[in-house]
Prior knowledge:
The chain has one domain. Helices cover 88% and strands 0% of the residues. The protein is an all-alpha fold.
Amino acid sequence: MKNLFCYADKYLQKSNWKDMAMLKFCLFSIGILIGMRIPEKGKKKVGIAALLVFLITYIPLMAKFIGIVITENRE
């Protein structure tokens, strides 16, 4: 757990405002997916939109994070 916080600190040091904005959109969209209380009629459209936003933001965020973890483990 201690290493996870160290990696998170390194990630934040190497991040800019765009990375943080993507992180917020990522968390927002997963929150929508988890907490959807929309009638059946609109649930599918909202779910698909939230899933797309989540995937578009999650993949680059995790790629950067994994890159940092790999780099730190080599040192």
